[in-house]
Amino acid sequence: MQWLNLLNANFRKEYIEMKRYLPNTIALLLTFYILFLGAFFGIMFIGDPATFDANVQYSIISVVFWGLTMLTMNFIGFAVVTEAMRGTLEQLYMSPMGVWKIMLMRIIGQFSLQSILMLLLLFAAMWTSGQWMNLNPLTTIPIIIITMISMIGVSFMIAGLAIIVKQIQAFLQIFQFVLMALVFIPISVAPYLVFAPFVKGVNMIRTVMMENLTLTQLPWSDFGILFINSVVYLALGLFVFHRCEKVAMKKGLLGQY
């Protein structure tokens, strides 16, 4: 029950902030839509006509998931910086639930809201390009949920860094281009990327949507690799976060900005 109350409180917080700063939310959607338009017209004018449909579909899925991964994985880092700027970071540590549980519920609530926004972006991109793909929710949703676990793990690593150094905006700006590369480069070109977080999941979703596959048509080995990858990154992320917390407490950094 405590977990549900915590999730409800954080979901409401994220929803209220998103609605209150609606122009920022709309600008966020427009930014990713404009990026897609740039890729779409680039493919239209200089791309190979024989592979036009596949290239556009690839771009649609990649832009949408780049946005989702970037917003999710950077979220806790930005949240820690914001709490530190507001002077409320120490107050979170007074909660009996623990900061990592608060941040976990906050990122789940944020991920749910951002997924709705990215779904709107997906439909806008498909409508613009005329490339209608089968979303197949019974297949894509389980993959997205498992993939999200690894995103949370990396997000906790970034949050741990933010607790110690506070100002990480420049790092996050560079990190978004790293995420772009991870999303856009297929595993078939760089097989070693299967060890990176979320890449396997994005490739599976791309395959499902472009080839209209069902859950049973995907190799179970892919699900095994995805699940192990996600659990490892989640465990590593929580470990790094707790270690950074101890360092920050020992050096008295929680109350400083």
Task: Write a structural description.
The structure is a single chain. With 257 residues, the protein is mainly α. It has one domain. The protein is built from 10 helices and no strands. The protein has helices spanning 2-20, 22-46, 52-73, 75-86, 89-92, 99-129, 137-165, 169-184, 199-211, 220-251. α2 (22-46) packs across α6 (99-129), α3 packs antiparallel against α6 (99-129) and α3 (52-73) runs antiparallel to α9 (199-211). The longest helix is centred in the last third of the chain and has 32 residues, at 220-251. The protein is globular and about 60 Å long.
Distance between the termini: 34 Å
Question: What's the average pLDDT?
Answer: 83
The outline comes out as: globular
Domain count: 1
| Beta strand count | 0
Name the helix and strand elements from N-terminus to C-terminus, one letter apiece: HHHHHHHHHH
The largest pleated sheet is described as: none
Which residues sit in consecutive blocks of at least 5 with pLDDT less than 50? Answer: none
Strand content: under 5%
Amount of helix: over 70%
- Given the helix and strand composition, which structural class is it? mainly alpha
Number of helices: 10
Query: What is the radius of gyration?
Result: 19 Å
